[in-house]
Write a structure and sequence with these properties.
two-stranded antiparallel sheet; 3 domains; three-stranded antiparallel sheet; mainly alpha; about 55% helix; single chain; 20 helices
């Protein structure tokens, strides 16, 4: 009798067949479940893409029709304008908003005049329809090409499906047909001239250029720095604010002796030009030190000990570093150790550079710093940062005014009398003897236009001097004013 004959063999074979059948069914059920889940997932995803595409196309069609209407119904020109404005809904809608804002502000902007089509021949598109133009810009939704491996285990039975994704892809593509653009070649290369639009940089420059003088421009920049918004009311980036701060420093250097500095720079501290030059150099060096860069699309990057930062993180880091630098600049350049302005120009420079709040804070800290007696009893503290070298300031001045005569001729309008001008000269030209410097000062003051006034008994009229309020009470300049003019002039600077 054979090994598998009889009832034992029959039962064994039946049991094996039942086991194989069960495994086969399990594998087939698993594959059916995987196919069903995959179909549901990809169909949902493709439907979502189609919904987004339709929403985008609604915006495309609306913007395209608006520009076609702006071009007097010329469909090819409208399509050219759409592509010149950016060719995507965000860019074109932004352009249309700027266009509407420009007209709302009472300014004229004719799109037909502003669209430059050099080298673009639209005559071949006379029969172009709006639907064709739209079809060339519609959102594409590619068909599915799903790659999916059969992991059901049916390969053990020689029943594995070689390309599981193909059937799912064909079924979904039939249910949700792919969308493609209908290309239109030859309508590209147009350029929109945005000059005259209320948000264009050129228009902003025209607004600034129309400012009657540099002092007003200085105030306009300061307004933008303090408010964080441009002249059109739009938020400024940190890079734009920094550029305005540097621009104001340059303006100060050019203006030199405006406002009260024109009439009150009688001490020997740093001038507007010197302070603004130090400000420009310091802030520019800070940008270089931290690898400050702004990309063409306005993204800021900086280098930090922890690595490179970009975007908002970079702006925050830069703002903190800039504020820290400003505090040190004010402490070392604007004030002396007692909290008094190093010169009358320093007061005006601080306010013009947008350092008013910083100056107030630094001054309070200087006034409340420990006295020499307190410091004698206290442990030795780290040495504070040294202020800018007076030698550096002197070298800059001598480079600009190589002779005492050129210096005196430039600063004679800022000195009330020959003695004050002499005190300024001796700081920069110590090698020239006192008699010669005095004569240079006398000659320069004598060449100033004389003010008109009543002359009694042939005596010379007293000149108006800077008001006492220009000086910090109890400062060196304040006490010198009292000693020099206290008996001859009123506090407002007029002769008694």
């Amino acid at each position: 009798m054979g090994l598998f004959s009889g009832s034992f063999g029959t039962g064994l074979i039946t049991g094996l067949a039942t086991s194989v059948d069960k495994s086969l069914r399990t594998a087939m059920d698993k594959r059916d479940e995987e196919l069903s889940s995959a179909r549901k997932f990809w169909q949902t995803r493709q439907a979502q893409k189609m919904d987004l595409a339709e929403a985008r196309d609604t915006r495309v069609k609306k913007s395209l029709n608006r520009l076609i209407d702006e071009m007097g119904g010329d469909i090819a020109s409208g399509l050219a304008a759409y592509r010149a404005a950016g060719g995507d809904p965000d860019s074109v809608e932004g352009f249309i908003k700027d266009l509407d804002d420009t007209r709302a502000a009472g300014l004229e902007y004719n799109l037909r005049d502003k669209l430059k089509l050099d080298g673009v021949d639209l005559s071949q598109f006379k029969d172009l329809t709006r639907e064709q133009a739209f079809a060339s810009e519609r959102t594409e939704v590619p068909g599915l090409d799903i790659q999916m491996e059969d992991t059901s285990g049916l390969s053990n039975f020689g029943l594995a499906m070689k390309d599981m994704g193909k059937g799912i892809s064909e079924g979904i593509n039939k249910l949700i047909p792919p969308r493609e653009r209908e290309a239109i070649e030859g309508i590209a290369g147009g350029v929109l001239d945005r000059s005259g639009m209320i948000t264009s940089e050129r228009y902003k420059n025209e607004v600034i250029a129309a400012v009657p003088n540099m002092k007003t421009q200085l105030s306009a920049n300061l307004y933008q720095i303090n408010n964080g918004k441009d002249l059109m009311g739009k938020d400024l980036t940190e890079d734009a604010i920094t550029n305005l701060e540097l621009q104001n420093a340059k303006l100060l250097s050019q203006i030199g002796g405006i406002a009260k500095a024109e009439a009150a720079a009688t001490d020997t501290g740093p001038t507007l030009s010197e302070i603004s030059s130090l400000y420009t150099k310091g802030l520019t060096d800070l940008k270089t030190d931290i690898g400050y860069e702004v990309s063409s699309n306005g993204v800021m990057t900086v280098n930090t000990p922890e690595g490179v930062l970009e975007g908002q993180d970079a702006q925050t880091y830069w703002l903190n570093k800039k504020n820290e630098w400003k505090s040190n600049f004010v402490k070392n350049t604007i004030f002396d150790s007692s909290g008094s302005y190093v010169s009358n120009d320093a007061d005006f420079a601080a306010r013009s550079l947008g350092l008013g709040k910083v100056a107030t804070s630094v001054r309070e800290s200087l006034v409340t710093e420990p006295t020499d007696e307190d410091m004698a009893e206290a442990p030795t503290a780290p040495k504070a940062p040294e202020p800018p070298s007076q030698e550096e300031i002197k070298q800059q001045t001598l480079a600009k005014y190589p002779t005492a005569n050129s210096f005196a001729d430039n600063f004679k309008t800022k000195a009330p009398d020959a003695e004050s001008l002499y005190r300024m000269l001796v700081q920069y030209y110590p090698d020239i003897d006192d008699a010669q410097l005095s004569q240079i000062a006398i000659d320069a003051i004598a060449s100033k236009p004389k003010p008109r006034g009543f002359v009694s008994n042939g005596s010379s009229p007293k000149e108006k001097v800077p008001p006492l309020s220009n000086f910090t009470k109890d400062s060196k300049a304040y006490n010198e004013w009292l000693a020099t003019y206290g008996q001859t002039h009123n506090p407002d600077g007029t002769p008694k």
